[in-house]
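Input sequence (211 aa), recorded before submission:
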Amino acid sequence: MKKAPANAAIVLKLLPRYYPDAHCALDHKNAFELLIATILSAQCTDERVNIVTKGLFAKYPTPEKMAKAKQEDLEELIRSAGFYKNKAKNIKACSQALVEKHHGQVPETLEDLVHLAGVGRKTANVVLGNAFDITSGIVVDTHVTRLSNRLGWVKSEDAVAIEKRLCEFVPKQHWIKLSHELIFHGRQICKARKPLCERCFLLEHCPQKGV
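Predicted structure, token format:
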């Protein structure tokens, strides 16, 4: 492992202490539901996705049924999640690929997942970590990006570069949970516009107090 930032050890110790129940905020019953929910979560809140998927999965609960759905019907069901035309196209194509190439099962490798429509490295990491407990990488979303920069761990907005740097000093057994912990902290304390520094348990370890 490459040298860790000076505050990394204490931050990595405190995060699980304060967020012992940190978890994926997307409602799902299986790997397929998590995959589709994560595709829908692009530029959309998890809360909105959970509202949308309730109706979507009630009508199309399996890859086989979603693959046969009319795109306009999918568009109507997911309209409020934004970019609904492109997302509907992707979830239909993704479902078709699952049926045609993977026997209706969500693949358990990064390489296979990123070849599915609408799936990039972030989505693949979400599915592998949360549906299969496979440690493939660290999920880097807007919260993880913001906090990694504020904590002085990176100076980048590039998700791939941030993930690479985090993986250099974060113990592998912490990769899956770390993103959840940072997301929880980003939503509750280290908010984008007005971080609640006076309430932050990481205050004395943060190089950007009062950002």
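Checked by second reader. Residues 8-20+138-205 form a domain with the Endonuclease Iii, domain 2 fold (CATH 1.10.1670.10).
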